[in-house]
Amino acid sequence: MTAHTWRSLKNKKYQLSLRLFLFLNLASTIFSTLSPLYSVRTLTIPVCLISLGSAGVLLWHWKYPHKKINIDAISIASGCLWAWHVAIKYAQVQPLDFSYLVIALLSVLFIGTISFSDNVRAFTLHSLPIFLTSLWLNDGEQWMRMVYCFALPMVGITIQHAIQKRNDSFAQSLMYKLLEERETLNDLSMLDPLTGLYNRRGLKNRLDTLLALGTGQHFVLLIDIDHFKAYNDHYGHMMGDQALIRVSAAVRDAVRSRDIVTRFGGEEFMVLLTSVDATQAQQKAERIRQQVYDLKIPHMFNESVATNVTVSIGIAALEGDAIDSALENADKALYEAKHLGRNNILSSDEMRFA
């Protein structure tokens, strides 16, 4: 879930609340007209306005669901029209009957309670006009009953609103925590667990970003530890892992922070040097070779080259976004560098002109 998804859910909840409110108002006006209380059949102006307005806004909002409608304005307008309707009809009920006001008030409270179960402001704006009108029409004689009828759903909705707000806060904090954990997992999935360098997935992610910028000349370096299989066989995999960790750190320290360093295979590393020329790429490769050599990690099976761990490096230019072609050229240069005696650096351009 993202922040956009959260806003989308909130918007859908708003749309449902608005449509339900308009539908209940429309249904109430139809019921009031076809089956009026106390058999007083009066088609009042406010009922017509509520009916036409609710139907019109409902159809319009259904057609344009992304258009924002102010629920507070709709609520108070509807509440005032219902209060006007009750005032007109109460005058026609003979003799004047307090129970009509109670039933009318409860009907309006029902609409607000169902539609705005956790929206205290909208409920209040919709219900307050008819509550005040009912108190005024009854001259305040039954004010305790009126207050009770109004206060009971108000308290319930206030409690529901507080609970919903707390639940929303908890859900939001949980969502942000999950997003953070997902980002952490995504980062971890792009890193080699042993060396902390990028793996191939991390390389692709960084490479896509780099190529999208499209600036400068880039070079690919393929680096392989000389006679590493023999090292592992003799010294053991635990010592082999320690050697990989130290070599990877040396490679990382030898280049700039903006260069991309990847563990490309078991004992193979790939460095993407960004915005450099051929001379600078050669210098960076030499620095890597020397820093690995200076680690002085003993390696008796590398004695044809040295008595410690060394690396061979192949270099190739990255033309455009042809990473596969660059890797293939760098691999050929690496193979030839090993063939020439290891602890060596060779560029694909040197092979081409040899």
Descriptive account of the structure:
The chain is about 65% helix and about 10% strand. It contains 12 helices and 5 strands. It has helices spanning about 5-35, 45-65, 70-90, 100-115, 120-135, 145-190, 200-215, 230-235, 235-255, 280-295, 325-340, 350-354, and strands at about 220-225, 260-265, 270-275, 310-320, 345. The longest helix has about 45 residues, at about 145-190. The model has no long low-confidence stretch (mean pLDDT about 85).
Strand order, largest beta sheet: 2-3-1-4-5
Structural class: alpha+beta
Radius of gyration: 38 Å
Oligomer: single chain
Please tally the helical runs, counting DSSP H or I stretches of 4 or more residues.
12
Helix content: 55-70%
The geometry reads as rod-shaped
Uncertain parts:
none
Report the count of strand segments: 5
Q: What's the pLDDT, averaged over the residues? A: 84
> Biggest β-sheet: count, sense, barrel?
5 strands, mixed
Question: Layout of SSEs?
Answer:
Blueprint lengths: L2 H32 L10 H19 L7 H20 L7 H18 L4 H18 L5 H47 L10 H14 L4 E8 L2 H8 L1 H18 L5 E4 L4 E6 L4 H16 L17 E8 L4 H17 L5 E3 H6 L1
Helix pairs in contact: 1-2, 1-4, 2-3, 3-4, 3-5, 4-5, 4-6, 5-6, 8-9, 9-10
